[in-house]
Write a structure and sequence with these properties.
This protein is an alpha+beta fold. It is built from two helices and three strands. 54% of the residues lie in helices and 25% in strands.
Amino acid sequence: MRQARRRRWQRGQETLQAVLVVAFMLLPVLFGIVELGGLIHVWIGQQSAAAIGARVAGERGEDDAIVRDRVAVELRAAGLDPANVQVTVSPAYVRWGQPITVRVTSRRHLAIPFLFSRELTLASSYVGRGEVNH
């Protein structure tokens, strides 16, 4: 009788340990995977917007409203809010064959339960070539 009661108590203890392992070890891993997937999604969207921006800036030979609008359209298509993203085009004016760089930067909050929480800066840049002779 005592052994049956002891086994039942031991099985209950093993179940409790398994629940705690899942809650405190595997759950942060799952949240980390989800958070990392979200960050990769944002980075890919930014990279795409920077590439389109560099192509348009190279075609136009300068940083203007058309370049910025095209970057904003690409960010929206990726599900990102252009108001939360900083776009830098340098130099502002290029000639034929000169490089023009578009850099897209945003700040994101990364939080993984039980592990850490921090602010991250995601930056994407792309270089195009001027296709216009001013």
